[in-house]
Amino acid sequence: MRYATLGHSGLKVSSACLGTMNFGTLDGVAICREEDAAGIVSAFLDAGGNFFDTADGYTGGESEEIVGRAVRRRRDEVVLATKAFLPQGPGPNDRGLSRAHLTRALEASLRRLGTDHIDLYQCHQWDESTPIEETMATLDGFVRSGKVRYLGCSNFTAAQIVESQWAAQRAGGTSFISLQPQYSLLHREIEAEILPTCDRHGLGTMIWSPLGGGVLTGRYGQAGTPEEGSRAARLKASSMPLAQAWGDAMLNDRDLGIAGEVVKTAAGLGVTPATVALSWVSRRPGVTSVIIGPRTVDQLHANLAGLAYDLPDAVLDHLDQISG
């Protein structure tokens, strides 16, 4: 396992980050049962991984609870990251990045995780309704209290990153050290402005969806029909319209065409398509850590092998051409 400092900080994180969005039950279906999740966490730690990502909105808070119990005996080995923004109730102040909501959200996450501090506390998304000065001052208070060690954000644009860092600097407070963006052979939008902005403003990156929601594994084929139990199938069957739309958007002709090329490339190298996709993204400039979301220990080991694999330069060039 490789390690790197996360942004402009002294925090060392593993090149693989264990994403735990699958831990628990969603829409009445157990995606990854707690006993299976505990085995994945243990195997990840034994492989040298130390970086874990969850959120208060994952499986209704169950993900945080499962992660907290799984790492409790090895808490000092772990860099524990969680996020806040998503609705935690029906009220108007039960979501967002206001001081009122963030304060309650932090205390709830600490209880679910069974810990007295969170290593990396992240804004899950931008909040148009709250002044960024209020958000950054609130987060700085969390750091000063000792309940949070470092701050990060997720899904922010380049302009939003700059506004946040400037707001923290004006107040003499704590700034962000990380961004969690989507990035893969299917989604390279962050290369134009977001990655350069992260570099200038001292943010490391934790990449989510490096396999394009599973599309880059080749499991959907050219027909784009999701198999039972796949992420796209779960999203399309969800009761939430936003999730349904996301599932539909995953299976478009462009992305399926790129996935087909990845499958051909992998066959020529004698590796899996997932190995090709993970190796490519892990070696991109500006990438600190890649979030993987295995549902079994076997998937974990396969993902870690993919991150450790070195693609030939000619293959990297080919992948750039087909996905750029």
UniProtKB/TrEMBL annotation:
Gene3D superfamilies: NADP-dependent oxidoreductase domain. Coiled coil: none annotated. One of its GO terms (cellular component) is cytosol. Pfam families: Aldo_ket_red (PF00248). Keywords: Oxidoreductase. The keyword Oxidoreductase applies. Residues 17-322 form the NADP-dependent oxidoreductase domain. One of its GO terms (molecular function) is oxidoreductase activity. It comes from the Bacteria. This is Aldo/keto reductase.
